[in-house]
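Supplementary Data S3. Sequence and structure tokens for construct A.
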Amino acid sequence: MNGAFVDPGAEVAEGVSLAPGAVVYAGARIGAGTRIGAGAVVHPGTVLGEDCVIEEGAVLGKRPRLRAGSSAAGASIGSLVVEAGATVCCGAVVYAGAFVAAGAIIGDQSQVRERASIGVQSVVGRASSVDFEARVGARVLIQTGVYVTGGSIVEDDVFLGPGVLTTNDHTMSRHASGEPLLGPTFRRACRVGGGAVLVPGVVIGEEAFVAAGALVTRDVGKREVVMGVPARVVRQVRDEDLLERWRGA
């Protein structure tokens, strides 16, 4: 196949395009019409739907390498599933056990960890990281260099600006083994500006607006606009700025 390596134990449908240097291991399943770029690697157990685009150097189905004593060491991983029409861009790494829904885009050099999920038509921007067990809804826009920490919940139509940083551990690793971590929750259609920092467990309300550079140390209510260090409420989101006014514009 034009210099690509396909293990005989892989299931590759008709019409799949493999560029030179692409590697598909045994147990992988590749849907019809999918294109796999040069140097991309598809690990065992990975399932790709029809008409996916896997660009050069992407790695799919990587198993996590965990430190000794990690609370996640004994957790079940499972297979990576990428649904029809999704794109994984150059140099991105999507781990075993993750889920990427139809039409989603995983940007260049980004990372989606085990048991994380990316919703329909969502975008993970260049060099961003969606950590283990994070749940990202549909039509979410995650910009460049964003860190979505483990256990975060990102509901539909959320916007996370470039460089947004989330955290999930108040003790910075000095807690009892097995104690759950608590990522932030982003409710539907909220917007968070570039460079904002969120402490563990905060909730950003539906249609709320967090200004660029804010430090969010407490929950933000529905439609509240907050800014500053620490972030404080300055007004409410106007009716004309709600998502329904702009959807499809």
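Construct B, processed identically:
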Amino acid sequence: MALLLEDGQIFSEFEIAARQHTRLLPQMMNSVMVAAGCSKSSLSYCAFCNGPGAFTGIRIAAATAQGIGIALNIPLIPVSTLATLAQASLDRQDAISTLVALDARMGEVYWAVYNKDDNGIAQLVGQERVDKIADVQIDPSIRHGAGHGWSVAKDIWQFEQSVSVDDSLLPDAVSLIKLVKQAISNQQTVSADQIDINYLRNKVAEKSAKK
């Protein structure tokens, strides 16, 4: 959870807590608002990671953001989870390009390659994908990688030892804010009734919805 003020100050909290998002999100939001000394009514935008990733976590984030958007009548900014992870990777590994990967279960990974632009912002190369681990071809030019997808794929993927991989790195709200600032500048916002979840694995999502 992170809050960006107009003067550039960032207030944030980060916690790894599986299956506790519903309880922790309101608490963390209140905490950063108190720390920043501002009220919810002063918010101008609400951003959230819209996937890909764990379906339950994505839905909780989207529903929370949608509730805030409706209650405060403010626009929302959906940001790719992979893009947020890539921004963290590019910043922390001081890289110009990175291959980010998240475990998608069932022997698959969500993955994408991102480059850093002149402003230090992660830019997608090609498209985000979900593939069988064995089907992902590592470009020889890749020198940096991040995400737990690398951990589950390390015995299958063939890549040079010179590739620096941080398989414990996770998307975080501070990295998200960098992407959000660009989205605001480019007027890439949506209303609360227009949000879309980036599942990538659409067939699984559709099957779950029919149950």
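Residues 81-166 form a domain with the Nucleotidyltransferase; domain 5 fold (CATH 3.30.420.40). The longest helix spans residues 55-72.
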